[in-house]
Design goal:
By secondary structure, this protein is α/β, with parallel strands linked by helices. The protein has helices at residues 14-25, 38-50, 65-83, 108-129, 155-174, 198-201, 203-211, 225-231, and strands spanning 5-8, 29-34, 55-59, 88-93, 133-142, 181-187, 243-246. Helix 1 crosses helix 8 (225-231), helix 3 runs parallel beside helix 4 (108-129) and helix 4 (108-129) packs parallel to helix 5.
Length: 252
């Protein structure tokens, strides 16, 4: 049986790392991107290799859409050299960051950064990857609970995630003839480095989140990766064009 390969953006820490490890446990080889912390990326490679899978990481700056195209080109060249075949099976668009500003205070460069990271780079990275995605492959885009509910200060970020959800439905429609599915995972508040780590470190904020979450706590990175691995499995082959919120029941 040929081993499958996943390409994941932003997997040197946080949610992306947990996605990579869950997929590796399922026997998937991993190609992933990191922004600047090569040491963290090397640690993740060692963890994946300890699970018996191949792994390699390349840099990617999500604020520059051309960087995403370069990341895909390096990934495809690696696959061609390693396997004699440039194709892969799963694309997970995870890399991202947030900005916290009220609408009245948001600067154009902050808005543009959110648009570049969460829409433009994903659109053109995915476009570059499509010729190499195997039939019956999977695309999973990472959105946010903030595309469903509204919290002050997150408008620019949440708008782009809403756009990403629309993009995902179009991918599902246009790639159906190739039996490729496209779905969205929308995490709720998770205790990671994201947005300065406030969901992890700010006890007042953590208490508020716990109070509005049905399961009564802040999410952890380990709560998310298993859902991505499930969507990449045969068990999820008939799920397509869907948004799956993984939030423990925030604001239900």
């Amino acid at each position: 049986m040929n081993q499958k390969t996943a390409i994941i953006t932003g997997a040197s820490r946080g949610l992306g790392k947990d996605m990579a490890l869950n997929l590796a446990k399922d026997g998937v080889n991993i190609i992933f991107s990191y922004h600047t912390n090569e040491e963290k990326a090397k640690e993740v490679i060692l963890e994946i290799e300890a699970l018996g899978q191949k792994a390699i990481a390349f840099p990617f700056d999500a604020n520059d859409f051309k960087s995403g195209q370069q990341f895909i080109a390096k990934s495809i060249a690696y696959l061609e050299n390693e396997n004699g075949d440039p194709n892969f099976d799963f694309l997970i668009n995870n890399a991202g960051t947030g900005t916290f500003n009220l609408i009245a205070d948001t600067r154009e460069e902050q808005f543009d950064e959110m648009m570049n990271i969460h829409l433009k780079s994903i659109y053109f990275l995915t476009q570059a990857a499509l010729p190499y995605l195997n039939e019956s492959g999977r695309i999973i885009n990472i959105s946010s609970g903030l595309a469903r509910f509204s919290l002050p200060g997150m408008s620019a970020y949440a708008m782009m995630k809403g756009g990403l959800e629309v993009f995902t439905r179009y991918l599902a429609k246009e790639l159906g003839t190739r039996k490729i599915t496209a779905n969205v995972i929308a995490p709720g508040a998770v205790a990671t480095d994201f947005a300065g780590g406030s969901n992890r470190d700010n006890e007042d904020k953590r208490a508020i989140i716990a109070n509005i979450t049905a399961l009564g706590r802040v999410g952890e990175a380990e709560d998310i990766g298993g859902t991505v691995a499930f969507l990449c499995s045969e068990r999820a082959r008939w799920i397509n064009g869907q948004r799956i919120e993984v939030s423990g029941g925030m604001l239900v």
